[in-house]
Specification:
binds beta-D-glucopyranuronic acid, 656 residues, TIM Barrel, Alpha-d-glucuronidase, C-terminal Domain, Chitobiase, domain 2, 20 helices, 3 domains, single chain
């Protein structure tokens, strides 16, 4: 048998399948419906359990059988078998039945038609629009294969800040060429729909969703799309958010907008994914509260083929925030999870951060909406409220860099997202171990070194960027590095000062009853826990409370000292990561060692930058000395404030 390329890590390891099998044994890959009676009897399987995408692998009489109800189920099964072999599982008595618990498992590319990628840190877009549809880059096939091997079944090709041109025939033909490649791997294509497209490319005078010509335009446009792409997944829409057009421009609601599109795709089995990332510069209320206030009253009003896509956290993909309170609050509406895999707020592609830890923390958060155990995972997989459709999206970190994701370890975040989209109950520690085995090796010494490094890496970033519940301290626009002093009068809720509220009295955002009362959007149990200083977890402290600099933390430190020591801890954690990596030097290939070592050195330099810039700035309010153990910054605050990054990657020109 020829070797088969599969997600054994994107380092392109190849596995010679025949070597892995015991001699003289066979591999049988067959749908349940075509198994002969002998096999069926031996299997004793209720095939309904496998659904449309599940698979069953079993060793019978020394042969390995992979079976499923569908072709895609078989493909998933074969990939998993290969991964199991690579991870060192013994095939002798092997048995595995697995089905995904989430229906739509999607990547969202924020790729523009000019091949720049908004918030992309791995080069340019993979999609070479200019050479499409004729030229099919091998990487489209590799991309599809890698995605299928982790169960991703949908991809939205273009930026949510959408360009209507992607809906014109010229681009639809190109998108169709990509869809033809992806189809074989069970991946459907979705497109972002710019709400004003009927005006921009359709020549209409309005995009009002209640206008009959507009409705008809979308019906015709959808018909055209399905001619090109018969299995088109549907539309992903960012409307009335950060300047994007939407139904509210016409005094209509999100329901009016979403349902208009939903009607257009319904005859073809398509869906509309309507994003809930909305907040307005005219709205004076806490930005954290706005999406909930705007969407929850519409629960039950969306058509059945609409999913509302909610970011994991109320502000914006920060290193740490509490989960978004919309999860659990809309029992009649399928809520799709949106995670950000690309590291806009976690050090771009130079910082090693294992995001499944963050994803797991969110998914395992308890909403309490139906009593204890009502986790976000159960909202997302639809089981809590018995939904007929469910979904999870990840904003892609993929670009045309040779290593796909900019940082070799960022591949683990793509992989981990896939595993959690397939099963939101999956454990970050299992994902870490599996990824190390598939990517590097089964060497136990290496696993013992790298696994804790991966699992602790997210907390390190939280510590050196946004400790104790601080959030959005990023320099405005490009979000590269620390900028807590930024306070542009134009738009308060894009300013770090809006979020940290530091002054001589203290620091933090009061979201309790004495402040914005964002607490009220959580269930009673959580509102009590977060609202009470004795029970609020310290990792969320300054997200919910504004506290004096001499407030006493659980460990007895003052808030000022504790904050400074957290920043320092983050820096030390990066130094430890470097030491760990050096210890792994002899176990991994030299070029792999060097590449990651250089990146870790950048991470350490930037962790120190975050620590020093942030503490120097906050010190102007606290007026206190740095505690023992935190070194005096080598530069002054003016130096950090003077740093400018006009060409930082991933920014849209109009946001500069
Ligand atoms: C913010 C990004 C911006 C995106 C926006 C979104 O900075 O580039 O357009 O999210 O999700 O975090 O729509």
């Amino acid at each position: 048998m020829r070797s088969i390329w599969v997600y054994l890590g994107l380092l392109n390891q190849k596995l010679n399948f025949s070597d892995a099998m015991m001699k003289d044994n066979s591999l049988v890959v067959a749908k349940v419906s075509s198994l002969n009676e002998g096999w069926s009897l031996k299997l004793g399987l209720d095939s309904e359990k496998l659904g449309k995408e599940g698979f069953y692998i079993k060793t019978i009489d020394g042969s390995v059988l992979v079976t499923a109800n569908t072709d895609i189920g078989l493909l998933y099964g074969v990939f998993r078998l290969l991964q199991s072999i690579q991870a060192g599982h013994d095939l002798k008595d092997f048995q595995m039945l697995d089905t995904p618990t989430v229906d739509l498992r999607m990547l969202n590319h924020w790729d523009n038609l000019d091949r720049t990628v908004e918030r992309g840190y791995a080069g340019f877009s993979l999609w070479n629009w200019q050479k499409l549809p004729e030229y099919i880059d091998q990487r489209y096939i590799d991309y599809a294969r890698a995605n299928a091997s982790i169960g991703i079944n949908g991809t939205s090709l273009t930026n949510v800040n959408a360009n209507a041109l992607v809906l014109t025939p010229m681009y639809l033909e190109k998108a169709a060429a990509l869809a033809n490649v992806f189809r074989k791997y069970g991946i459907k294509v979705y497109l972002t729909a710019r709400f004003s497209a009927p005006m921009e490319i359709g020549g209409l005078e309005t995009a009002d969703p209640l206008n009959a010509d507009v409705q008809n335009w979308w019906i015709q446009k959808t018909r055209e799309i399905y001619k090109w792409i018969p299995d088109f997944g549907g539309f992903l829409v960012k409307a009335n958010s950060e300047g994007q057009p939407g139904p509210r421009n016409y005094g209509r609601t999100h329901v009016d907008g979403a349902n208009m599109l939903a009607k257009a795709v319904e005859p073809y089995g398509g869906v509309v994914i309507w994003r809930a990332f909305v907040y307005s510069e005219e709205d004076e209320t806490d930005r954290a509260k706005q999406a909930y206030s705007e969407f929850v009253p519409y629960d039950g009003k969306f058509m059945d083929n609409v999913l509302v896509q909610v970011k994991n956290d109320p502000i914006d993909f920060q290193p740490r925030e509490p989960f978004h309170p919309m999860f659990g609050a809309m029992p009649e509406t399928p809520l799709m999870m949106e995670f950000q895999i690309t590291q806009e707020y976690l050090g771009f592609s130079s910082h090693l951060v294992f995001l499944p830890k963050l994803f797991e923390e969110v998914l395992q958060s308890d909403t309490y909406v139906q009593g204890k155990g009502s986790t976000v995972a159960k909202v997302v997989d639809g089981s809590l409220h018995d939904k007929s459709i469910s979904g999870m999206a990840g904003v892609s970190n993929i670009g045309n860099d040779l290593n796909w994701t900019g940082h070799p370890f960022a591949q683990a975040n793509w992989f981990g997202f896939g595993r959690l989209a397939w099963n939101p109950e999956a454990k970050a520690s299992d994902i870490a171990e599996e990824w190390i085995k598939l990517t590097y090796s089964q060497n136990q010494e290496l696993i013992d070194l790298l696994k804790p490094m991966l699992l602790d890496s997210r907390e390190a970033v939280v510590n050196y960027m946004n400790p104790l519940g601080l959030h959005h301290l990023f320099d405005t626009g490009h979000h590269y590095g620390s900028g807590p002093w930024v306070n542009n009068p134009g738009r308060p809720d894009w300013n770090p000062t809006y979020y940290h509220n530091a002054d001589a009295n203290g620091i933090g955002f009061d979201r309790t009853t004495t402040g914005s009362n964002a607490l009220e959007q959580y269930s009673k149990e959580l509102a009590e826990t977060f609202g009470n200083l004795r029970t609020c977890p310290e990792e969320y402290l300054l997200w919910f409370h504004h506290l004096p600099w001499d407030y006493t933390l659980n460990n007895g430190n003052t808030l000022w000292d504790g904050l400074a020591l957290k920043y320092q801890e983050g820096v030390e954690q990066v130094s430890e990561m470097i030491a760990t990596w050096e210890n792994a030097r002899n176990i991994i290939a030299d070029n792999q060692y060097k590449e990651v070592k250089m990146l870790l050195d950048i991470q350490l330099k930037e962790a120190k930058w975050w620590r020093d810039a942030s503490l120097l700035y906050f010190q102007t309010f606290s007026g206190k000395e740095l505690p023992d153990g935190v070194p005096k910054p080598k530069k002054d605050l003016e130096y950090y404030k003077s740093l400018k990054f006009p060409f930082a990657p991933g920014i849209r020109p109009q946001w500069d």
